[in-house]
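Suppose a classmate hands you a notebook page containing two proteins, each written out with its sequence and a corresponding row of structure tokens. How would you begin to make sense of it? This section walks through that situation. The first entry is reproduced here exactly as it would appear on such a page.
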Amino acid sequence: MKKPIKSRGYVLLEALVALLIFSLGLLGMISFQAVSFKIMADSRFRTEAAMLADELLARMSASEISRVQADYGPQGAKLLSWVDDRVVGGSRLPEAKVVPSFSASATPSTLLVNLRIEWTPPGAAGASPAVAATGVYETKALLF
């Protein structure tokens, strides 16, 4: 008659393997949560920048074409006032900068506007140079 093979500790080994698999799955879910939070924050900032750009372009289009460059240029009084009131005072974009540039178009009654909004996401100030440390939203519009 053969002696039975001892199989003690087999259940403990199964439990340890199951715990390892569960732990790896849990770590994967936590890292997924962190990445999804970063994507959500970036999406919120881009939406805010798009709304600000639309608002500024609407103000520019309501102005007289001949005054747009003077009023809404980089040192224009209306642009600086709008940035203080709306961007710094009313938006949630951290350290936002609004940079408009203008190009001549085919007719003197139209103006091509390139509007760039930049911001620094939270926690990106100390990031390595290889990682993009600023968010950017850029749009173009033809005013007439």
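The notebook's second entry, a different protein, reads as follows.
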Amino acid sequence: MKLIIAQGNPGSEYKKTRHNIGWLALDAIANELNADDWQQKTKFHGFVAPVTFNDSKALLLKPTTFYNDTGRAVRTVTDFYNLQPSDILVLHDELALPRGSVRVRPSGSSAGNNGIKSISSHLGSEEYWRLRIGIKPNHQVANSSQYVLNPLSSSDQEALKQLQPTLILYVKKFLNGSLKAHSFSLPETKA
């Protein structure tokens, strides 16, 4: 069993914000893997959907704990299924990466991401997979906290759409145990 979690915030006001790009990516992945049976599970603090790919089973998770407290949901699922940190893949936005780029790593620091800090704190480990989706603007922003909570621009949405095949490929590799650290960028996108 593996866990694929997308960081984001519950509520319609956050649905299409940059901080919820992980949730949007997970929706595309769920669609590709025919996981249409999302159910809210209060014991897991989120919405879950089971998937199977090439005999590998996984649980998709969209926590309802808010972005900065996702560790609580991850810990609950991890304990219930007796998972190891290496069985976990976290999809999240990354302000340090340009729009249209992704980076996947088997471990690492939080890089200032409070949701990642929460997961690491609850697991007592930083040895879990992260799939970082770039949202860095092409211009300087005065308030990064406000920027991530703003709606996705049309170029953000287009970049995410173009990245979907790559994100799906990485998730499939994670599920079959062949995922390696990697970076990918689309050709230059406009603001």
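A careful reader of the second entry would note: Residues 154-175 form the longest helix (22 residues).
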